[in-house]
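Recall that a protein's primary structure is simply its ordered list of amino acids. Everything else, from secondary elements to tertiary packing, is in principle encoded there. The following example makes that idea concrete.
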Amino acid sequence: MSSSKSKLQTLGLRTWIEIDRKAIAHNFKTFRKLVPKETKLLAVVKSNAYGHNLTEFAEEAARLGADMLGVDSLVEALALRKAHITTPILVLGYTLPELYPEAHARNVAITVSSWEALRGAARAGARQPLTIHLKVDTGMHRQGFLLGDLPKIVAFLERNRAKVHLGGLYTHFAGAKDPDDRAYTIEQLQEFFMWRDALVKAGFSPIVHAGATAGMLLYPEAHFDMVRVGIGMYGVWPSDAAKKKLHKALIFTPVLSWKAMVSEVKKIPKGSSVGYDRTHRVKRDTILAVCPVGYWHGYPRALSSKGSVLLRGKRAPVLGRVSMDMIVVDVTGIVGVRVGDEVTLIGTNGREYISADGVAKAAGTSAYELLTRLNPLIRRIYQ
C-alpha cells in the first residue's frame, strides 16, 4: 500500500491495527498444503478472529476456500450470516438451548457436549433435524462426553435420527503443543478412535476432527476428515516447542501490526518520577513521548517499566505504569521525535521488530490472550 493511501486510512486515528491480506493468504495456503485434498480445513475465527476482526477475517478465509468457520458463540455466527457469509459455520462454545431453532434457521451447526444439550437438541429438532457436532472428552476434561457415555450416546442418536443430524464428531487435545511429550496425546487419539469406530459401526458418517493448529502440525494421524486451524492462521506459532521443531520446514507470516502515534513530547530533569505511584525515576535528563494507548486498548499493565515500542526505527522503553489510556516512553536517544510520529507496538518499524509473542512473554502471558484482548473498538485496516 502506498504511504499516501495509508495516511488517508489512518487519518483521525490515535491507534489502529493493520491486517496483512497477503500474510493471511500465505498462511492459509501453507496449512492447506499440509493436509490431503480430501481433508477439510476449518478456519477458527472465534473471539473476534483472535483480535483480527471477526467478519473481515472470516470473509478473507471464505474467499481463500475455507470449508468451514469456527466461532465461539451463536452471536458470532449470526454476525457472519448478517455479513452475507454463507460458508458452513460451527459454534465451538456453548449454545443456549433456546437458541437452537435460530441456529437451525441460519444453517449453523452447534457443539453438543452434555446430556442436557443433547436432549435439548432432540426437542428442538422435532420438526426438522438439528445439525450438531458431538464433542467428546478424551482427556482435556473441559467440554465433552466421557467414554463411559459412549453406549448410551449411540443408542440415543439411533433413536433420534429424525431429530438430530450428527454432522460431526470431535475432541480437543490437552498437550499437543509439546512435540517431546506425545504419550498423552496418543492416549487421547486411541480413545477418540473408539468413539469414531462405534458411531461409524452404528451407521453414522460424521465429519471427524481432532487437530487444532498444534495437533494438525505435529500429529498427521489426527487429520481425519477436517482440521481446525486457529492461531497458526494468524501467523503465530502455538508454542515455542512446535516452532523449534518445525520452523526450518514451515514459515508462517504474522498478520497483525498494532500502531499508535506520539501525542506529546517533553523533557524532564534527572531524578524526576514518571507515572502513577512514581514507580520509575529517570537517571538522566530524559525526553519523554506520550502515546495515547493503555490497558483499555489491550496494552498489558504488566508491561509497566518492562515493555518497549518502536519509533523512527529504534526501541523506546516504557517508563512507569501503563495507564488506562496512555503509556510514556523514553525517546532520549532517538533524534527528532515529534507529535504525530508513528509508533509500533506490534510489528516492524525500520529494521526493528516486536512480535506478539515477545510482547506477551514480557507481560507474562500468551499471544492468544494478548491478541484476543485487543480492544475491538480499535479500527482494523485490511490492506
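Residues 183-201 form the longest helix (19 residues). DSSP finds 13 helices and 20 strands in the chain.
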